[in-house]
Amino acid sequence: MKSLYENFMYAARAHAKWEIATTQVIVKDRKKLLILLVLFLPILIPAIAHAGSVLPGFIGGKSSFGPSFFSPTTFYGSILIGVCAGLITGCIGAGGGFIITPALMSLGVKGIMAVGTDMFHIFAKAIMGTAVHKKLGNVHVGLAIAFLAGSFIGVTGGGVLNRAIFNHNPVVSDFVISMLYVFMLGFLGFYALADYLKSKNKIGDEAGDAHGGPSGLTGTALKMQSIKIPPMITFDEDIYPGGRKISGVFVALCGGLVGFVAAIMGVGGGFLTFPIFVYALGVSSFTTVGTDILQIIFTAGYGSITQYAVYGYVFYTLAMGMLVGSLLGIQIGAITTKVVPGIQIRGFYAVAILAGFINRLFVLPDKLRIMGYINMSQATTKTLETIGAVIFFGLVTVFALWIISTFVRNIPNLRAEAMAASSGGKGVSK
């Protein structure tokens, strides 16, 4: 039985493969690139023309019915954030979206707007590319429908709660979102670091079995599958003789939990879907991957539009900036993996996650001070917040520059490999 962390990383790699496949569809399709350019020009031209003057209200405002341009710093910063997230996804092979919301918040974007913008960016990338890449897994329609039924309810609840907290007190809203990221990134970061230290003397990455994940069932999964509450859903018929069955009610409840958390944090929810499906419901990783990617598309679309965009909590320009940046970053990152040792990449992955953890952890004292829960000077809390931002952006920038410089230095090797592959020869080894 794989550990919880190993199963999460399997899900992260599967999601990264989907993102890479999606971006390749976009960059190889001239019509899609033209559409992207048309969408990008209305916000790029004013950004370039901006020289300290006040922009028109339509462009500078926060209305959900027009593009939002917060400042030159946040706009250009969104592109760089997209590049860095794309580099992490393409090079490491794990989703880089965990840095987006914290990074936007560090640039001065309110937490609820960072969440809505991140979800919209995920949805925009999905609809610009393909719906589901069939090679990534088996999409089970029954599981997907039941999951989405619960997910839509959970997303609605999460969106309502997020907006209610923000309307009550924006500082509390930022504090809650930051706390959630502290727990998530802390868990992932320290496990990733431990995995890196443990794997330094090993060769290659984890391969996994044919379908990924455990072949047996946990005690929880056995109990859940033994409860016959209609409608019952049969799944994994191609893996196990006769397949396995689970109540659609349990699948919907899981969808509700994932949707609720995704709506509050602005993520796809895969980090929860995978362990819940595998450990609690007994679904194979092969089936989970495809179903999870399908739900991310619909969950992100429904959440970003109905819970955030229509209320003015999506920065269209920042979402477009991240989309363009990620398209570039993912391509460079995916190519660079051919010339970069995997163990180095895993080390940088752990450091990048821990940098995000420190970033959100160091903003908490200032939020607690403003809310009156701790007695610290404003200078001290602001200094801590600045230190966290410097560590975060510094490490992510170093990582990005390292990948890009490695890519540039190895362009001759990559060209030689491509020529060898086209002629039927063997590529250049690392």
Arithmetic mean of pLDDT: 76
Principal-axes shape call: globular
What proportion strand?
under 5%
Q: What's the structural domain tally?
A: 1
Binned, the helix content reads over 70%
Rg of Cα set: 22 Å
In spatial order, strands of the major sheet run: 1-2
Q: Note the gap between the termini.
A: 32 Å
How many individual helices?
A: 17
Class by SSE composition: mainly alpha
Order of helices and strands: HHHHHHHHHEEHHHHHHHH
- Sheet with most strands: 2 strands, antiparallel
Low-pLDDT segments = 51-69, 131-136, 203-215, 426-430
Strand segment tally: 2
Description:
The structure is a single chain. With 430 residues, this protein is an all-alpha fold. The protein has one domain (4-422). The protein has helices at 4-27, 30-49, 57-60, 72-92, 100-106, 111-128, 141-168, 170-199, 219-226, 248-265, 270-281, 285-308, 316-336, 342-361, 364-370, 378-409, 411-422, and strands spanning 232-235, 244-247.
Short note summarizing the structure:
The protein is mainly alpha-helical and 430 residues long. It is built from 17 helices and 2 strands.
Features of this protein?
single chain; 430 residues; two-stranded antiparallel ribbon; 17 helices
Write the layout of secondary structure elements.
Elements (H helix, E strand, L loop, with lengths): L3 H24 L2 H20 L7 H4 L11 H21 L7 H7 L4 H18 L12 H28 L1 H30 L19 H8 L5 E4 L8 E4 H18 L4 H12 L3 H24 L7 H21 L5 H20 L2 H7 L7 H32 L1 H12 L8
Antiparallel strand pairs: 1-2
Helix pairs in contact: 1-11, 1-13, 2-13, 4-13, 4-16, 5-6, 6-12, 6-13, 7-8, 7-10, 7-12, 8-14, 8-15, 9-11, 10-11, 11-12, 13-16, 14-16, 15-16
